Amino acid sequence: MALHEHTVLICPKNDEESLMILKLAHAAGIPTIEITQPHGARFEKETDIIPRIMETDPDAQTLVVVELPGPRMEELLEGVGYKVVIIDHHRYDDVDRMQEKSSLEQFRDYFGIDDTQVAALGFNPRMVEAVGVIDRGFVWELKREGFIGEDFQEALKFYRLLTLELGEKRRLKEEALAQEAWEEKREQNGVLIVKTEDDFGSIRDAVSFLVAAAYPEHPPQTVVIQGTRRMYVQESPHAKELHDRFGGFTFGKDECWGILKDDGNLPLLDEVLHVIVK
To answer: Which of 2, 54, 73, 251 is buried most deeply by CB count within 10 Å?
Structure first.
């Protein structure tokens, strides 16, 4: 593992990938600030970040910031003398952080945590690899990366354990809501539409696994609408077009798009379909 003296990791714990990053960081003894914001986290919301950095390492020189976009906060921290290293793979309204590698893969590259180190830290290197692959391109990416048979099933089981570790009751409720929405799914112009009026949590991950089980080889474009705040389009060649038209963010190698609107002003389904149905 590469040594990075006086380097502090700043990372949320709001999905399986970030949880895996934090597990590796803690095991490796990397000074870490854990961010409690859910999906949609923004750096500017962390009003006490400098005192927390000072508490974590008063001599900190480098801050490695994972999936916490916030150009103004980054500029502020650079202005007081910190070097800010960005780890991300999304495209946001105000900044493009799209990368080919997942954040977990970038984290491992930066800190030099190879498979030998992963094993020494007490983790299964193949399963850790799977988490990064899933976050990069979901279940279908696993197959493209050679996860087949028992290897594939073990990867899904490991990912599921991380999911439950994030909050078993919450995740089980999200999965139940996803199943209910899945049973009412419909198809329009070759696009799968999954919708629920319930605003609880986020059902996107759970819906994604249902899609993967039903379409193991060639996933359709899928629209997930949850309440009045969340909308996603997955496995679409038009994700960047949606981002350009409606804002929000892209992920999954620019093949997925999402938008969160606290004011309830989501794009209309017909508007989205107009972009993705060619």
So the answer is: 251
